[in-house]
């Protein structure tokens, strides 16, 4: 029987890249049954400040797997980020974001880059403790807990172990935030002792992200707090080729959510030119997660072959390297043609 998943088409480029990705999944024979849910802009503008309809909650709670295109959070007061709401209320504590260069097929200055960023996904400045203190003073509080640190650090080391990775780097700013980031660092050191076969190292986030941008090949798995992870994963994706290339898995105890790392890209939406690769990679991670690794490999290989052939969307297109600039749907068609190749 097909695995039921809650599917959100998203806003901006969301529906364009989701349509393309679902087409590929169907052609690949993924044994899934999408249940479409309403999330995002329309729900917000209907007066629901959480951005999530009641039907969506029911579908999420019964299906436990969410496949989500990026959504737009409307500007203005009172709208809560639904990404934060979903991650927090579903306990999606780990945000796993792999970035690897596809040299020489996709232009990048860093041919040997192969990094996985594991971002704590519920705490830190995203815990939602933000308020106006007095007329002119506004506060956002950083929340770091020992169980939260233990969960994410252990997840990072287990991930490294399972995927045969050699090194985990912790990035925090404990020279300044001695108590909160200090706890993250301390827990990292404690748990690292349980994994003597995996190298461990801590770097202050500012120099760490600078070095990542200069020599990404020196990094393997990175574990970090929520805000830092948000920032360095966009940097990593962009220097790896494009922010449009990377997918993510948001992992919790009972529920998992798969999405691209980027947003709804209003600047290019409606043109049909967005790169669907990030969402396709998220789909690959989802298929592996729900026990369909053969289909996951089939999609991943066809995607790689398509990039190797030089069919590139505008964000990664480069004269002399690419064969043809494709739009979103053409790219998906090529991936479908390549199913079964590797
Ligand atoms: P963004 O990631 O949407 O776009 C940043 C830049 O990257 C833009 O120039 C865009 O054209 C480009 N880009 C992004 N994805 C691309 C793709 N697949 N192919 C080609 N180019 C791509 O970030 P921005 O502009 O800061 O945010 C736009 C909206 O998205 C906001 O409302 C924000 O709240 C929302 N957002 C939603 C997320 C989610 O649903 N998970 C995550 C991040 C932002
Ligand atoms: Mg982000």
From TrEMBL:
Top EC class of this enzyme: oxidoreductase
Cofactor: Mn(2+); Mg(2+)
Key words, A-Z: Glyoxylate bypass, Magnesium, Manganese, Metal-binding, NADP, Oxidoreductase, Tricarboxylic acid cycle
Residues of the Isopropylmalate dehydrogenase-like domain: 4-335
Enzyme Commission code(s) on record: 1.1.1.42
Reaction catalysed by this enzyme: D-threo-isocitrate + NADP(+) = 2-oxoglutarate + CO2 + NADPH
GO molecular function: isocitrate dehydrogenase (NADP+) activity
Protein's job: Catalyzes the oxidative decarboxylation of isocitrate to 2-oxoglutarate and carbon dioxide with the concomitant reduction of NADP(+).
Assembly and interaction partners: Homodimer.
Family of this protein: Belongs to the isocitrate and isopropylmalate dehydrogenases family.
Protein name: Isocitrate dehydrogenase [NADP]
Region of the whole protein represented: 17 to 358 of 504
